[in-house]
Specification:
Layout (H helix, E strand, L loop, with lengths): L1 H11 L4 H8 L3 H8 L8 H11 L3 H5 L2 H21 L4 H16 L1
Helix pairs in contact: 1-3, 2-4
Protein name: Helix-turn-helix domain-containing protein
Organism: Niallia alba
Keywords: DNA-binding
Length: 106
């Protein structure tokens, strides 16, 4: 469960395993084994390092996936509705994402 959460948030932030490991100061192989369900019980210290890089509370990684999915789906729907209502187009949204990625890399 925790490994799936880590992977979901890592991919959402568009971070590779290597980048997450480097930024958190942990072993890439350990993150990989968590994401694949080989390791199951990481320490709270490890989770704190990972959650810091992913910019989420540690508790988020510990919540059952279903409750997170429902909560996040509602939040994304509200954000999407607000963007559409403000007149944002799909192309503008894509440009915004590309800008954020560029800004993060520079």
């Amino acid at each position: 469960m925790i490994g799936k959460q880590i992977k979901k948030y890592r991919l959402a932030k568009n971070i590779t395993l290597s980048e997450l490991a480097e930024q958190a100061g942990v072993a890439k192989s350990y993150i990989s084994s968590l994401e694949r369900g080989i390791q199951l019980n990481p320490s709270i210290h490890f989770l704190a390092k990972i959650s810091n890089v992913l910019e989420i509370p540690v508790e988020t990684l510990l919540q059952p996936e279903e409750s997170l999915t429902n909560e996040m789906e509602l939040e994304w729907k509200v954000l999407l509705r607000d963007a559409i209502n403000s007149g944002m187009t799909k192309e503008q949204f894509r440009e915004f994402l590309e800008f954020r990625k560029w800004k993060k890399d520079h």
